């Protein structure tokens, strides 16, 4: 089956070769790179991918630019470089696309987040659904970080998983990345508080994407949110069953929320 692949990269030499190798659709692989300073682009070319360069201006803009490239096929699988396709998921995607009604626009999958050699089955907040296969021209990405996907048609959830390795570049890199994320998130949240009221009805709707957006809007208005996030992940979601990895990951998520809170307060008084 002919499916195109899009991978967004910036300094992903540690991850990219394994990501491309995990994908069975090798005829039309595109790597959209934000001018990496390592060997990412040469790795992509050696693997047979077409490389495109674009200065990074935001996650939504980057994905929209990538999804508008000249793909050979109507369906595009979009991956992050630290994600791995599984044979089970690849077969399921092919089956869904081969029998797809015309109104099917997007396929959503869950990820198995790996840390310290194990799947964070509980402390990661699993299951969270991520759009990863798109019918060309039917999806628009919005929001600068933790993107939101708006689609013309129907979205369908799949049973199989991606495998996600967010710590392949080290724990220090994770903190550096989330330091940048928290800066962007604080700025976006401040704008949303001023222009985007909570839609309570969407908290209880059947659309998992809309429900997640509404819940996030509510969560980010809660007092003591970082501690609530830790208790939720480690206690209520049984993160303690993930052992030492679960304790560390829930604590790191709490640290990330603390960074967002501090920067949000700084943004309010103009010191960000």
Q: How would you describe this structure to a colleague?
A:
It contains 9 helices and 11 strands. It is α/β, with parallel strands linked by helices and 272 residues long. It has 2 domains: 161 residues, Alpha-Beta Complex (Spore Coat Polysaccharide Biosynthesis Protein SpsA, Chain A), CATH 3.90.550.10; 98 residues, no CATH class. The strands form 2 sheets. Strands 1, 2, 3, 4, 5, 6, 7, 8 and 11 form a 9-stranded mixed sheet that branches. The protein has a two-stranded antiparallel ribbon with strand order 9-10. It is globular, with a radius of gyration of 19 Å. The mean pLDDT is 92. It comes from Mesorhizobium tianshanense.
Strand residues, percent: 15-25%
Please name the CATH topology of the largest domain: Spore Coat Polysaccharide Biosynthesis Protein SpsA, Chain A
Helical residue percent band: 40-55%
Round the Cα radius of gyration to an integer and report it: 19 Å
- Give the averaged pLDDT, no decimals: 92
At a glance:
With 272 residues, this protein is an alpha/beta fold. It has helices at 16-21, 40-46, 59-67, 87-98, 171-195, 200-203, 208-219, 225-236, 243-268; strands at residues 4-9, 29-33, 50-53, 75-80, 83-84, 104-115, 118-119, 129-135, 139-142, 148-151, 154-164. Strands 1, 2, 3, 4, 5, 6, 7, 8 and 11 form a nine-stranded mixed sheet that branches. A two-stranded antiparallel sheet has the order 9-10.
Features:
42% helix; Spore Coat Polysaccharide Biosynthesis Protein SpsA, Chain A; nine-stranded mixed beta sheet; two-stranded antiparallel sheet; globular; alpha/beta
């Amino acid at each position: 089956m002919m499916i195109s692949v899009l991978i967004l990269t910036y300094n992903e030499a540690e991850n990219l070769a394994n990501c491309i190798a995990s994908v069975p659709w090798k005829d039309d692989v595109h790597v959209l790179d934000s001018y990496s300073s390592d060997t990412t682009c040469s790795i992509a070319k050696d693997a047979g991918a077409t490389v495109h360069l674009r200065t990074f201006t935001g996650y939504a803009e980057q994905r929209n630019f990538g999804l508008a490239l000249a793909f050979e096929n109507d369906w595009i699988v979009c991956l992050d470089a630290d994600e791995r396709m599984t044979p089970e998921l690849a077969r399921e995607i092919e089956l869904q696309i081969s029998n797809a009604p015309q109104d099917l626009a997007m396929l959503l999958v869950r990820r198995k987040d790996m840390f310290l050699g194990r799947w964070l089955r509980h402390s990661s907040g699993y299951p969270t659904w991520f759009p990863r296969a798109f019918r060309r021209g039917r999806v628009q990405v919005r929001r600068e970080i933790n993107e939101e996907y708006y689609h013309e048609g129907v979205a369908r959830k799949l049973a199989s998983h991606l495998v996600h390795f967010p710590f392949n570049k080290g724990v220090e890199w994770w903190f550096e990345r989330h330091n940048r994320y928290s800066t962007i998130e604080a700025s976006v949240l401040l704008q949303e508080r001023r222009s985007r009221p909570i839609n309570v009805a969407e908290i209880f709707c059947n659309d998992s994407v809309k429900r997640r957006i509404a819940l996030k809007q509510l969560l980010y208005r809660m007092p003591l949110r970082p501690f609530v996030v830790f208790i939720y992940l480690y206690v209520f979601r049984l993160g303690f069953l993930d052992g030492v990895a679960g304790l560390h990951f829930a604590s790191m998520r709490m640290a990330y929320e603390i960074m967002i809170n501090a920067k949000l307060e700084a943004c309010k008084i103009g010191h960000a």
